[in-house]
Amino acid sequence: MRNLTAFIASLAFVISFTVLSMPASAGAGPSRSVIVVLRDDADSDVVAGDHAQRFGALVSHVYGAALRGYAARVPERLIPMLQRDARVAFVEEDRLLSATDVIPRTGVYRIAADKSKEFGGDGSAFLNTGVAIIDTGISSHSALNIAGGYNCAGFFFVNRTAWSDGNGHGTHVAGTVAAKNMNGIVGVAPGAPLWAVRVLGSDGSGYLSWIICGINWVANNAASKKIKVANMSLGGGGADDGNCGNTNNDAMHKAICTAVNAKGVTFVAAAGNDSKDFSTFTPAAYNEVLTVTAMADFDGLPGGAYTGGVACGNVDDTAATFSNFTSTTNTLDMNHTIAAPGVCVTSTYFNNGYATGSGTSFASPHVAGTVALCLASGVCSGTPATIIQKVRTDASLRSDTTVAPYYGFTNDPNSPNGNRYYGHLAYAGGY
After folding, report:
1. Cα–Cα dist 78/15, whole Å
2. Is 43 annotated in the active site?
3. Of 331, 307, 326, the residue nearest 317 (C-alpha)
4. How far is 169 from 233, CA to CA, in rounded Å?
5. Quick count: other Cβ atoms within 10 Å of Cβ 24?
6. Range with the lowest mean pLDDT among 11-25, 92-106, 198-212, 352-366?
C-alpha cells in the first residue's frame, strides 16, 4: 500500500432566451466532472436542480452542511455560463486522491496511551466522543465499536449504507484509533464509537467530490451522532491559501473550515509519504487540521532501545524516511504539526484479522485517538484550534531533554534534521 501517493439566482448575463431554457439533452459533447461551490446564502438543492435543467448538469452529490454546492458532470462548453450564475462562488475540477500509506509492535505504547486512565476501560467514557474515519470504510471486527457509517464512494445510484471496507486501509486506521484490547493489539482510545465514512474505493483512491461528500456528512451529523474527531489518512496535491479555500477555489478546504469552525469537529490528517514539505499536499497543508508526521518505533520504548537494527527500512526512534514534514521557516505549518509512530504498525484488518503496515496513514490515527482521549477525559475543551494546541503543547512538554531515556526521537524539534520540522511526539498518557 505504500506507493499509493497521493494519495481531492439567475445568470447575471445571458446570451439568449434559448440558453436559459436549454434542456439537459442540449449538453451533448465533451463534459467535465466538477464541483460547483455556491455562495453561502444559496440553496444547494434548488440550484443543483436548476443547473440540471439549464446546463445539463448530471448531479452526483449535493452538499449543504460543510459547504453549499454540488458535484456533477457538466457539458464543457456550458461551464463558463454556469460560472456566471450569481449564486456560484467558484467551480473546481474534480480530481482523484488516494490513501497515504505503505504496506510488530504497535506505537500505542510509545505515545504512553497505556498510561491513560481510559486505557483499561470498557469504552463507556467515549459515549459522547465519536470518531469519524474518512477513508475506505471499516470492516466488521470484534475489536471495533462501529456505530454506523455512510458511503460516498461513487457518482450515481450509490448505496449509502454500503460503507464496509473494500480495501483494508480504513479498518487498519480504525483499529489504531479505538480497537479494544484483543490478541495483544489495542487502540489509543479503546472502545470509542467509530463512524465509517467511506470516500475511497477498493483501490484506495477516490474523487474529490466523494471526499467532500464525506466531510459534508460529518458536518451534518456531528451534533446528532456526537462526532468530535475526524481522521483523514488521505490526500493529494494542493496548498493552503490562508482563506479557507475562498481565494484559490479549494472546495475541500472550504468544507473542512466549516466542519471545524461551525460544527466543532477536530480534523487530524496524515502528512503524506513523499519525504517532502507537506505544504503542497492537502488536507495536510490546511492550518485548520492537526497534521501528523511519522516516526519509527519497534519496541514501544523511548531511547532507541530496539536491538534489531534497521527494520521496515527505518531505525528505531527516528523520523520515518518516507514521512513528509514542514520547514522550520514555516511558522504557520509548524503550529499544526505533531508526530506519531507510523512504521510497522499492527492493527485490525479484514476477516476479523490483523495486519502490519507503514505510512503517515497509520501515524495519523494515533493522534486522532489521542484527541479523543483528551476530549473524553475533559482535559481538552473549547474550539478545535484550542484542542490542537493543547495536544501539541502536552507533546512538547513531555520532550524534556534532561530526562533519560529521552521521550522524543531523533529529528524531532530538539534534534532537527536541517530545516525539516516533524513536530514533537504525541503524548496520550496524561488524559
Report:
1. 12
2. no
3. 307
4. 9
5. 14
6. 11-25
Per DSSP, the three-state class of 24 is: helix
The pLDDT score that the predictor gives to residue 15 is 24
Q: How far apart are CA 70 and CA 82, in angstroms?
A: 13
3-class SS at 331? helix
Longest Cα pair distance anywhere in the chain, in angstroms? Answer: 78
Closest Cα to residue 346, out of 184, 203, 232, 234?
Answer: 184
Classify strands 205-207 and 96-99 as parallel, antiparallel or unpaired.
Answer: antiparallel
203 carries an active-site annotation: no
- Within 10 angstroms of residue 218's Cβ, the number of other Cβ atoms is 27
Instruction: Point out the catalytic residue in the list 141, 169, 172, 253.
Output: 169
C-alpha cell at 306: 530496539
* Amino acid residing at 412: D
Give helix then strand counts, H and E, for the chain: 9, 19
Q: Which of 358, 361, 364, 399 is catalytic?
A: 361
DSSP state at residue 85: B
- Angle (deg, nearest 10), helices 208-221 and 251-261: 10
Residue 393 CB: number of other CB atoms within 10 A? Answer: 12
Structure confidence at residue 401 (pLDDT) = 87
- Set of cell numbers at residue 57: 448538469
Sign of the torsion formed by the C-alpha atoms of 141, 231, 360 and 309? negative
Q: For residue range 240-288, what is the model confidence (pLDDT) as tens digits?
A: 999 999 999 999 999 999 999 999 999 999 999 999 999 999 999 999 9
- Three-state SS at 193: coil
Residue found by looking up cell 534497521 in the block: 310
Mean pLDDT, residues 5-31 taken together: 38
Place of cell 519496541: 299
User: Catalytic residue among 135, 165, 333, 412, which?
Assistant: 135
Please confirm, yes or no, whether 361 is among the known catalytic residues.
yes
Is residue 69 a contact partner of residue 39, using CB atoms and an 8 Å limit? no
Distance CA 112, CA 429 (A): 5
Q: Around 297, how many Cα atoms within 13 Å sit in the side-chain half-sphere?
A: 29
pTM (predicted TM-score)? 0.85
Whether the Cβ atoms of residue 48 and residue 74 lie closer than 8 Å to each other: no
Among 137-146, 211-220, 221-230, 400-409, whose mean pLDDT is lowest? 400-409
